[in-house]
Write a structure and sequence with these properties.
The protein is 59% helix and 16% strand. The chain is built from 3 helices and 3 strands. Strands 1-3-2 form a 3-stranded antiparallel sheet.
Length: 88
């Protein structure tokens, strides 16, 4: 590939899309397993063990990024770690 700019733009756009999907999903408090399930449904993915590990790790990273940037918060309720979009 001689010009990487289109690939970088595509990757950035998809990352922003996923962040927005997560912000939308977390408008109501949600635990990770349900977030992951809904992401799989949103993108019409089929979950197997390998996909669970790979996509799950990626989604955890996105949630951590959103939390670090004050876009979502997490807290424990009823022995579940819940994620919720921060409303301004």
């Amino acid at each position: 590939m001689e010009d990487i700019k289109p690939l970088v733009k595509l990757n950035r756009d998809k990352s922003l899309e996923i962040l927005n999907v997560l912000l939308d999903l977390c408008k109501e408090p949600m635990h990770f397993e349900l977030i992951l399930k809904k992401v799989f449904e949103h993108y019409e993915l089929t979950m197997d063990h390998a996909q669970y590990v790979l996509v799950g790790s990626t989604i955890r990273s996105y949630l951590a990024y959103l939390c670090d940037n004050g876009k979502v918060e997490n807290y424990v309720e009823d022995n579940l770690l819940l994620w919720k979009t921060v409303t301004e």
